[in-house]
């Protein structure tokens, strides 16, 4: 299943995410995903595993044009010239000469002038053909409004935390208004049970409403959630390093959720964010530098 972005580029709707994938496990995970049929891999400079993603793609023996590669510029590389250099660092590690999608990792309101400069560098990279599409991540509607007022090209993608317990209808509406594809990180609610992200969380994977739909469909809760995203026109980036789980997450194209089932999942939204708030300044984290090699 593909999504045509607002500049005409075709992107596979389902991709493998590698957030928190240890470098030593990432290459094998990418190889397993591509063997299972994935053709979209999402990484980031800040993940520290772009080189291993590139190794996995190279080892697959697939043509470069057959794999949609998405990565993100980290905050410490914001600024016009710095972001052009970030492209060089990313393509060097990935072992490619162009990127399919390059996005800004955070809006960083406290440094928004640098954010704007970074996005203008993305516009240059797009014009030069060094990237095929550009976008943003973790941008709320007010961030988008500021960005659109100061730049020329509407982002193709906005990647945000999005799962049944936090479905961000306001973000989805703002994205839709501007023809921006909403892409879900933590699409099966992994953030609701990752260690170190807060206590007393409800695990969306164990939600009884989703379990009931999964039983009717003969699918797993994760497969039901991924189908929910795809049927509503979103891109989803599930993360796993387990080959069986990777294959399971891709087995979502042979069933349909009913309108009642979609509505039941929509009704689970709590409005409570589980990941970091993109409006909060995290300078110690934002200042972490990305090595050139």
Please render the helix and strand layout as text.
Blueprint lengths: L1 E3 L5 E3 L3 E2 L5 H14 L3 E3 L7 H11 L7 E6 L6 H15 L6 E4 L7 H16 L6 E4 L3 H10 L6 E5 L7 H9 L3 E5 L22 H10 L3 H11 L3 E2 L6 H8 L8 H8 L16 H4 L7
What is the gyration radius calculated from CA atoms?
Answer: 18 Å
Distance between the termini: 34 Å
Number of helices: 11
The spatial strand order of the largest sheet comes to 3-4-5-6-7-8-9-10
The overall pLDDT average reads: 95
Q: Stretches where pLDDT falls below 50 for ≥5 residues?
A: none
Principal-axis shape: globular
Fraction in helix: 25-40%
Biggest β-sheet, characterized? 8 strands, parallel
User: What sequence of helices (H) and strands (E) makes up the elements?
Assistant: EEEHEHEHEHEHEHEHHEHHH
The counted number of beta strands is: 10
Strand content: 5-15%
The structural class is alpha/beta
Q: What do you see in this structure?
A:
With 293 residues, this protein is an alpha/beta fold. The protein has eleven helices and ten strands. The chain has an eight-stranded parallel sheet. Strands 1-2 form a two-stranded antiparallel ribbon. β1 and β2 form a beta hairpin. The two termini are 34 Å apart.
